[in-house]
Amino acid sequence: MKKWFAVIGDPIAQSMSPEMHGRWFSDNGIDAAYIPVHVTSDRLGQAVEGLRELGCSGWNVTVPHKSAIIEHLDEIDPFARQMNAVNTVKVMEDGSLFGMNTDGIGFVRSLEEQFGNSGKEKNVLLIGAGGAARGIGYALVSEGYGPISCANRTLDKAERLAGELHAEAISIEEAEKQLARFGLVIQTTSVGMNFSAGGAPIDPSEIQAGTIVCDIIYNPLETEFLKLSREAGGHTMNGVGMFVHQGARSFQSWTGVQPDTKQMIDIITKKLGGI
Ligand code: ATR
Q1: Span from the CA of 131 to the centroid of ligand 1 (angstroms)
Q2: pLDDT tens digits for 211-263?
Q3: Which residues are known catalytic residues?
Q4: Which CATH number does 104-238 carry?
Q5: pTM here?
Q6: Sign of torsion over alpha carbons 45, 48, 51, 53
Q7: How many angstroms separate the CA atoms of 96 and 105, rounded?
Q8: Fold of 3-101+243-271
């Protein structure tokens, strides 16, 4: 029987995952389909049962279901359990549902694909304290990055995340003043996304030239934050790589095949209007 995979979320129509996984299946000669499924929060449990019943082999989970899905799964990877977020489900041979999280490690792989190990041993400034920051923070700690400083508009959320990561919490104002001491700056908030009012969560113009500056947003390809950072001499990376690498980890866990991430980053960048 032809295998099939899915991504569930609300909204889901804008997801680029179907195109990405569809291409990887065909490039690797795997006879499988990947479809977007619109699932509202009140129907999540029924949707999971439906996917299982209909023989889905695995699926990605996106906003707003990453935490809520956990109670519907049979086993959770310890890392995803710590983060309280699952973005990938694999249906095991016995039919049980295994949840994992590839977002944070996807970010780190993308960082290393672009900059090698040069982000290591640097002071890290993590901006934002939501789900995305948590995933990236945990992955950075487990991959030996740091020391980490967490900055967020709402300081007590930064303090909570910093407590979990054994990091320090600082206010946005302090972070702005101290920018020169950070060699790796990672922007994880939604500020600057296409649908938001634009702007930047922090003014990066005081970074040191040569600082690695990442924004996990990929649409637009260059946020205002990234543009200002580049103009200040930063070496910048947008969120396309993280998106592709989280997908690649999911793909690998389902198929055992490591797909071509570099080619996919080029394809998506072009699709979003870049070169
Ligand atoms: P995600 O899962 O994408 O991380 P989230 O959990 O809702 O989403 O977290 C959103 C992050 O963006 C938070 O750090 C939030 O800051 P607050 O904790 O102060 O709310 C940050 N954020 C959202 N809008 C912002 C804005 N206009 N200015 C600064 N930070 C903002």
Answers
A1: 9
A2: 999 999 999 999 999 999 999 999 999 999 999 999 999 999 999 999 999 99
A3: 66
A4: 3.40.50.720
A5: 0.96
A6: negative
A7: 24
A8: Rossmann fold (3.40.50)
